[in-house]
Every structure is written in structure tokens, then in C-alpha cells.
TrEMBL record:
Residues annotated as signal peptide: none
Origin superkingdom: Bacteria
Protein name in the entry: Alpha/beta hydrolase
Record has Hydrolase as a keyword: yes
GO function terms (MF aspect): hydrolase activity
Pfam families: Abhydrolase_1
Residue ranges constituting the AB hydrolase-1 domain according to the UniProt record: 30-263
UniProt KW keywords: Hydrolase
Entries under SUPFAM superfamilies matching the protein: alpha/beta-Hydrolases
């Protein structure tokens, strides 16, 4: 299916935010906000958006410095600030009661949004969300201040290679094709992303603590791949215990990239939950 995207950019806190907006003709339909994971973009929702937009208003965005959003070397790339940027975008679009769908790191951003503005969020769907990660070690943070450290980041990511990364995040390797490789590689054609990632190494404060999670009362659905090698299912089960109003679903023969591997099942579960 060829998807024609209504694409936009807006400046939020001095940085361009790229987003795609699919308004439903019925303005009373729920608004779903799709937030991608680390080193990813709205591209990771390409199989899910066509299904969701038939029933909801769908807003998908690229978190800076990823995708087509800005790659400022002045922005603070903490989870708290990234959540604040999303909140500002929602205010700009006059959306004041939405449901969040967050994949991997996007799950932590979603939880941060719910922590900051609980009245803004109706429900949260966490797709293989990251959880319980600490701040990076101090020596690495200090090293990020060395000149040309961004070249080390670039070399490290290049050494991993796109195929190795994709084989790690999907269980069914047969879905990996040239379109998929190109889609996940495209954002890295701009070298400024490596400078921005260097700043993220300094700024990322770590995931929300169990104590913080237990204070989030927003109704949440957790969907996990049983073969997830990036964020093991044990993390999902632990998040389920710490989030007081959550339910948990696991998908067989599924890895970390849940929206790519099982879009029909994910759509079905989201529809039941919403």
C-alpha cells in the first residue's frame, strides 16, 4: 500500500519538529500520538498507521535529533525535555486529551509525558518500552566532551551495520528488505545527528524509577514480543507490576520491532484497549 503522508514541520523551543497528521473525519474520535524509539523515526510505524488512521486521528512525530526533525547542537536531549517538546507540540495543535503509543525509548518518553501532564493523557500503549535503564557511566559522559567524540559515535554505529541491527530487533528476518534498510538508514545521512547523539549521551537522565512509575495512574497497555532481544520480556513484566493501572500482552514469535512485525495484532489490541 502506498501511503501519502500529510507532512509538516513546526518550530518548538527553537528546533524543527517533523510530524505526520492524519485527521479522522469524525472529530470526536480519539487522538493517538505515536512516539518512536532510539535511532528510529516515524518510519517504524509505517505498517501500523494505515490501520489506525481508519479509526482514529493519528499524529506521528520524529523526536529530535532523529528522523526529519532538527539535530541541534544546543538542545538538551534529556527524556524530560523531549517529553516537554511533545507536550508543546500537542498544545500547538490544540490537542488536550490524547492517547500515547510509545515504542522502546518512546515508551519512556510517553511515561515522562504522563508524569509531567497526567491530565493531558487518556491512555498509554507501551510497545516493548525501555525500562529501568540507568544513566550512562560517568567516564563515557566525560569522554563526550572530547573534541571529535561525535566521530567515535559515528564509527561505532557504522561498525554495527544496518543488517546486524535489524537482525537484532526483528524475529522474522524475512521481512527485512531494501525498503526497510533504506528507511532506517536515511536519517543518518546528516552528520549533525552524531553531534546531537553526543549531547544525548550527556543529557539522558535514565529511565523512571519504580517509585515514579507507581505514581502514574494513567491506564496503560503493555505489548511485548516474547523473543525481544533488546528489551527482554522480563522488563515488560516488571513495568506491568510497577504501573498500577496496566495490563500486559505478549506476542509469540515476535522480536523488539513490534509495530513492524505484528501490525495487525498490535492494531487489534490497541482498538480493544482504546
Amino acid at each position: 500500500m502506498t501511503l501519502v503522508s500529510p507532512q509538516f514541520k513546526v518550530n518548538v523551543q527553537g528546533i524543527d519538529i517533523y510530524y505526520e497528521l492524519y485527521p479522522h473525519k469524525d472529530r470526536n474520535k480519539p487522538v493517538l500520538v505515536l512516539i518512536h524509539g532510539f535511532l528510529s523515526s516515524t518510519f517504524s510505524y509505517r505498517r501500523l498507521i494505515p490501520l489506525l488512521k481508519e479509526e482514529y486521528t493519528v499524529l506521528a512525530l520524529d523526536l529530535p535529533p532523529f528522523g526529519r526533525s532538527g539535530k541541534s547542537t544546543k538542545m538538551t536531549y534529556s527524556y524530560q525535555n523531549l517529553a516537554h517538546v511533545v507536550i508543546k507540540l500537542l498544545n500547538h495543535l490544540n490537542y488536550f486529551r490524547v492517547s500515547l503509543v510509545g515504542h522502546s525509548m518512546g515508551g519512556q518518553i510517553s511515561l515522562n509525558i504522563a508524569k509531567q501532564c497526567p491530565d493531558l493523557i487518556d491512555k498509554i500503549v507501551l510497545l516493548s518500552s525501555s525500562g529501568y535503564m540507568k544513566r550512562l557511566p560517568s567516564p563515557l559522559i566525560y569522554s563526550s566532551y572530547f573534541p571529535f567524540f561525535h566521530l567515535y559515535v559515528k564509527r561505532h554505529l557504522a561498525k554495527q551495520g544496518i543488517d546486524r541491527n535489524l537482525y537484532n530487533v526483528v524475529h522474522d528476518h524475512s521481512i527485512i528488505d531494501e525498503d526497510m534498510r533504506k528507511g532506517y538508514l536515511e536519517p543518518f545521512s546528516d552528520d549533525n545527528i552524531f553531534r546531537a547523539l553526543t549531547r544525548m549521551i550527556r543529557h539522558r537522565e535514565g529511565d523512571l524509577t519504580p517509585e515514579e512509575l507507581r505514581k502514574i495512574e494513567t491506564s496503560s497497555l503493555l505489548i511485548w514480543g516474547q523473543e525481544d532481544k533488546v528489551v527482554p520480556i522480563s522488563i515488560g513484566e516488571r513495568l506491568h507490576k510497577d504501573l498500577p493501572n496496566s495490563s500486559f500482552i505478549s506476542l509469540t514469535k515476535t522480536g523488539h520491532l513490534v509495530p513492524e512485525e505484528k501490525p495487525l495484532l498490535v492494531h487489534e489490541r490497541i482498538a480493544q484497549f482504546i
